[in-house]
Structure of Nicotinate phosphoribosyltransferase:
Amino acid sequence: MIQDYSTALMTDMYEYTMLDAALKDGTANRKCVFEVFTRHLPLGRRYGVVAGTGRILDALEHFHLNEADLRFLSDRGIVSAETIKWLENFTFTGTIKGYREGEMFFPNSPVLEVEGTFGECTLLETLLLSILNYDSAVASAASRMVSAAGDRPCMDMGSRRTNESSAIAAARAAVVGGFQGTSNLRAAQLYGLNVIGTSAHCFTLVHDSERDAFVSQVKAMGVNTTLLVDTYNIENAIKTAVEVAGPELGCVRIDSGDLAALAQRVRNQLDTLGAKNTKITVTNDLDEYALASLQSAPVDSYGVGTMLVTGSGAPTCAMVYKLTEREGENGVMVPVAKHSKNKATTPGRKLAFRSYEYGLADAEHVVCGSEEQLARFQPEEDWKDLMVNYMNHGEADTQYQGSDAIVNARNHRAQSLAELPITAQSLMKGDPSIPTKIDLL
Amino acid sequence: MIQDYSTALMTDMYEYTMLDAALKDGTANRKCVFEVFTRHLPLGRRYGVVAGTGRILDALEHFHLNEADLRFLSDRGIVSAETIKWLENFTFTGTIKGYREGEMFFPNSPVLEVEGTFGECTLLETLLLSILNYDSAVASAASRMVSAAGDRPCMDMGSRRTNESSAIAAARAAVVGGFQGTSNLRAAQLYGLNVIGTSAHCFTLVHDSERDAFVSQVKAMGVNTTLLVDTYNIENAIKTAVEVAGPELGCVRIDSGDLAALAQRVRNQLDTLGAKNTKITVTNDLDEYALASLQSAPVDSYGVGTMLVTGSGAPTCAMVYKLTEREGENGVMVPVAKHSKNKATTPGRKLAFRSYEYGLADAEHVVCGSEEQLARFQPEEDWKDLMVNYMNHGEADTQYQGSDAIVNARNHRAQSLAELPITAQSLMKGDPSIPTKIDLL
């Protein structure tokens, strides 16, 4: 990492070589509309949750090539001297709209629409996709876990099982997906998230006895702390924990074994010892299915790691960034699409709405056409418009950045999910919970 | 991202709260040995490839708390004022040894050993695991892909399908795993990697015709460029491509459809047109199985994306960081281990060797004991010592950082894999290709 932070090379080389050729032939200045969408949800998933748009706005603030970046492009001969000149004061001046963070998405939902010149839009492809694909994968997994957990809070503890920077994005996306907090300090610092923590086995092991470790932890952190009780023998540990902290002990954590059975035994033992308010948290490779199976166990909260930060089997959303409309030689906008086998695209700009019946969503409507056609389009009365304006001619709408935006996204996810048919919350494999209807004007 | 870059909060909160308690009770100063290992390989995998240790050395250079970090820990009440004081000039002064980058690993291989005080070692847990878990997952997947690709070069094109910073680490890990280069500019800049690129469908679509796009690209990049030929109709595109660039055209890329059949058709057509030296590269959700199935197709190189950067079904290596030995009250080192169900650990320091029969590895030997026992241990004559010294009392051995280290790791991976039984290169699910023998002295 360099001091003068830039996101401008977090891209694939071809974006700069295409820019170089397009500057030479003039097409770099053509107005363009690009769209982000996915062709399918991960197998059997009912919906996805959009996350990462706030981070996109952050990343674009830093999308300026610094001297080292320009030198690199020049030294490696990636672009011509004229293009280096063009890049010197580069800043994205286009317009971005898209689904809100926390919004549900389905196959072909136009999650993001980017409008600007070909030159400026093409440079953003990889960075936008990286952010949306990973963050939405985590938020989508988180959302299923939160449904399976019911009223019990879920906490992100997955940092160690993904790249150290992904971990920060994962913590944020987990909260968008309905999690209550994270163990990741950098994420808490950067995004103002709740930060939580318990204790590790090494803390018990570094002490001469488990009792010494508990005494030390309670002394430093107070009786409301969470003691880890499965280093040696859980029954002995619970006894020691309540002796050390008293019946006001905040919480105990179990990290191994048959969690449902152990939680019941630990609950009984705590109750017998008078620690009726001491909570139980469990961790240990949990996923949405494990959480569902723990519904009747006396557990108060969950720490979820690996399966959260790796998208619970779907570590990417397979979103793509495609040109859908561009200016022609005569200045008129032309809808375009590729015809590649199994990878064809739908031409034209898009609007997106969700329709409802008896208060529940029954379809996603993607309306495609020219700017004029879309301006004239009248959605039906109960249709909700799914797109918001993130950036207007290079100016970000700051309401979508920062900690408040994450809280809003979290609330929006809860509301948006509640408006889907109840099958959306099923963990059984099935079709997307509402169909996507493409409407070509 | 902040200007004054620090990795010190890329951790879980409990590391700092444990430090706080351990400083208060004195155990923070106890000498400790921590070990990184995994209990199992991903289902059916024959081996894993270590990657990320060079990045660990880089990350530790930045593991110093800046003012914002200290203020955050203080404002959130995570640690006491005394601990803030202790952290002000924190720098890791311990010793790290471990497997080389590019080395094969198996269940219970002591991939990394960290020695220092409890306080300094505990702070590193999450950061070290994040790096090793992700980088090794990608290198392990890459290695299988490279075996399946035979002599044909594999290129990383996966940046868009993982977090934007993961993408950089993935490119580096891919090369450790045997890839030849990456499309990721930032990774190429940071690690001196080969950078490659072709062209996107949007470049064809922004032009008034495919021919215009090809003319523009060849003009900007020369005839040795790679033209993307599946935007509309592949046969027409090949014809146009050779008309535009001549028979000296460098390469064409196919990104959709039945790649084996298309490659054959494209090869025939190119040959007929006299473009006998024009190469064919294919991309499109390739994994090691797809590469294996393309062995007899006339393809010259592969661009691999999603499945590379997500570890081809195993996005983490499930490595853990466990305390194995620590100083007692009397200053004598004591081996320690947790007894948690299914998660018990092996106490004591470790040495690691690989033994050979007829030139091929036949076992991994993990020798556990006290420092004195291990110093006296005599491995058998043909055993290879698998551990190198990465850091000595806070001083990194710089031969393991930078671009040369990546090339060395790549070569080491090839040699190390060649010394495993040939079944290691099988894509069929099976047991680890050599057993790990634990030797308690």
User: Anything to note?
Assistant: Chain A has a mean pLDDT of 96.
